């Protein structure tokens, strides 16, 4: 299977990787532009890159948009919300920016809207997913996360279970602001698959599976320990199982010598560990799209420098 992978704090920003041949068949160096969250909407690739959003479409030139604000937006995940809108998580301001495909902002949703003031990157809001219960989002803590992290050892922080899943919108306003799951460790990679929610507790190398209940809540069905040697992030679900990324470092801590992709069976058991030839952090994993074949040169040559 061919995958599209985004990386941060690495020599690569985007990768094409073949899990059968175990080879990188295409790459974009991070010196061209940085990539964090990525999503494909039909034949269009959207990329979150620090305080920029980039759109690569076969129908025109790349479109660049800078999210301007008094402090660094730190854009993370980007996903479609519906046929005409996308969402980009502005981690620096703890909000979800809702935009059309021309990057015109339609609205902004923040779980901290009622706070009088919040520090930059207050709770490390990082990812979201559109679900039957509303738009759910992951964050590291309900308190300023850096202060919590700095008050203890890195190991204790990674295993502390301070992470949350929040309901940003509710369903028809019901359940808006609700804590949907807790006792997570630096959660990322919220993925809706076959009417169930999957996510990573990145800090302790665990994947969680949860079901949606009739009372507008979630119930954890299973959790699987995947690794003790990587920061777990970037989850792709497919008919034969899952692929999830293993990063070599996070928050200044060296965890492993090379990045990896874990291939899991449908029961979340590790089938194979695919070791990659570089160090750095994997953020997103998507299935490779044939539409990218015609855009590879354009994307590879695009530069923000």
**Strand order of the main beta sheet, please?**
3-2-1-26
Approximate helicity band:
under 10%
| Structural domain tally | 1
Structural class by SSE content:
mainly beta
CATH architecture: 6 Propeller
CATH superfamily: TolB, C-terminal domain
Give the N-terminus to C-terminus distance in angstroms: 33 Å
| Proportion of residues in extended strands | over 45%
> Biggest sheet, open or closed, and with what strands and sense?
4 strands, antiparallel
Please count the helical segments. Answer: 3
Helix/strand order: EEEEEEEEEEEEEHHEEEEEEEEEEEEEH
**Average predicted confidence as pLDDT:** 94
CATH topology: Neuraminidase
Explain how this protein is built.
The strands form seven sheets. A four-stranded antiparallel beta sheet has the order 3-2-1-26. A four-stranded antiparallel beta sheet has the order 4-5-6-7, with no helix packed on it. Strands 8-9-10-11 form a four-stranded antiparallel beta sheet, with no helix packed on it. The relative contact order is 0.16. The chain is mostly beta strands and 305 residues long. It is 6% helix and 49% strand. It has helices at residues 145-150, 154-158, 296-301, and strands spanning 2-8, 12-18, 23-29, 38-41, 44-49, 52-56, 63-66, 75-80, 85-90, 95-100, 105-109, 127-131, 134-139, 163-167, 179-184, 187-193, 196-201, 206-212, 218-225, 231-238, 241-247, 249-250, 253-254, 260-264, 270-275, 281-287. It has one domain: 6 Propeller (Neuraminidase), CATH 2.120.10.30. The chain is globular and about 45 Å long. The model has no long low-confidence stretch (mean pLDDT 94).
């Amino acid at each position: 299977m061919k995958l599209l992978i985004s990386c941060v704090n690495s020599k690569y920003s985007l990768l094409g990787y073949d899990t059968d041949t175990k080879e990188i068949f295409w790459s974009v160096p991070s010196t061209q532009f940085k990539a964090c969250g990525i999503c494909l909407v039909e034949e269009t690739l959207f990329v979150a890159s620090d305080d920029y959003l980039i759109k690569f479409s076969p129908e025109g030139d790349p479109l660049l948009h800078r999210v301007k604000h008094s402090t660094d937006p730190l854009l993370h995940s980007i996903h479609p919300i519906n046929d005409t809108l996308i969402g980009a998580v502005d981690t620096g301001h703890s909000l979800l920016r809702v935009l059309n495909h021309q990057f015109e902002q339609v609205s902004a949703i923040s779980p901290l809207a009622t706070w009088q003031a919040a520090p930059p990157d207050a709770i490390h809001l990082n990812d979201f997913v559109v679900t039957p219960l509303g738009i759910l989002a992951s964050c590291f803590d309900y308190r300023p996360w850096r202060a919590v992290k700095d008050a203890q050892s890195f190991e204790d922080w990674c295993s502390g279970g301070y992470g949350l899943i929040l309901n940003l919108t509710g369903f028809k306003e019901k359940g808006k602001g609700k804590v949907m799951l807790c006792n997570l460790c630096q959660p990322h990679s919220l993925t809706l698959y076959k009417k169930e929610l999957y996510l990573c507790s990145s800090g302790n190398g665990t994947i969680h599976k949860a079901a949606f209940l009739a009372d507008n809540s979630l119930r954890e069905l299973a959790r699987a320990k995947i690794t003790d040697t990587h920061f777990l992030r970037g989850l792709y679900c497919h008919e034969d199982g899952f692929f999830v990324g293993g990063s070599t470092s996070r928050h200044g801590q060296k965890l492993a010598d090379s990045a990896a992709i874990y291939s899991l069976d449908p029961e979340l058991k590790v089938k194979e560990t695919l070791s990659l030839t570089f160090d750095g952090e994997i953020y997103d994993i998507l299935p490779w799209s044939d539409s990218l074949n015609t855009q590879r040169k354009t994307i590879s040559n695009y530069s923000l420098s």
